[in-house]
Structure formats: structure tokens, C-alpha cells
Design a protein that fits this description.
The chain has a single domain, classed as Histone, subunit A, CATH 1.10.20. The chain contains three helices and no strands. It has helices spanning about 15-30, 40-70, 75-90. The longest helix is centred in the middle third of the chain and has 28 residues, at about 40-70.
């Protein structure tokens, strides 16, 4: 059986990785606002960062399961493409 392990992601323990992640989330959120003066609360950015992290981990786990179902040990973009409708579906 194939097992995947997420080896690193921003943890917020004194590293600049978390700040970079939050800055990226802030910029992504502003990209979709019509008014460039719109401000986003730092707590909202933290919540969105956590939600995005969960989304990415869930996508990785599902892609790993898809590869395992196909008796493969390497996860490829095709596995992600197969599970993508599950992640963005309206069910």
C-alpha cells in the first residue's frame, strides 16, 4: 500500500514561511475584490490560510488514494485531475 506524508508546510512557529503564506493569501483575496481599497482583517487571512492548507492536504490525500487504486506508487497530475471534481463539486 502506498503512503504519502506531507513533510513540510507553514506552521507559524517563528518562521517567515507563514508570513509569506499569509501575504500570498492576502494578495489572492484582493485580486477578486473590485475596490482596491478593500481591507481584509488579519484573522480572515489566517482562516483562509488554514482552509487553503486543508484543501491542499485533502487534494494530496485523495490523489494518493487514486494512485493506490490504480496500483501505482507515484502520484501524477492525472490522479489530481481525476479527483478534482470531488473537491469543487456542488454536492
Amino acid at each position: 500500500m502506498f503512503h504519502a506524508k506531507i513533510t513540510s508546510y507553514p506552521t507559524g512557529k517563528g518562521g517567515s514561511d507563514l508570513y509569506s503564506c499569509q501575504e500570498l493569501i492576502n494578495k489572492l483575496l484582493h485580486f477578486y475584490f473590485k475596490d482596491p481599497k478593500t481591507k481584509i482583517n488579519s484573522d480572515a487571512v489566517l482562516i483562509m490560510s488554514e482552509m487553503l492548507k486543508i484543501f491542499v492536504v485533502e487534494a494530496a490525500v485523495r490523489a494518493c488514494k487514486q494512485a493506490t487504486t490504480e496500483d501505482l506508487e507515484c502520484v501524477d497530475i492525472e490522479h489530481f485531475e481525476k479527483i478534482l471534481p470531488q473537491l469543487v463539486g456542488n454536492t
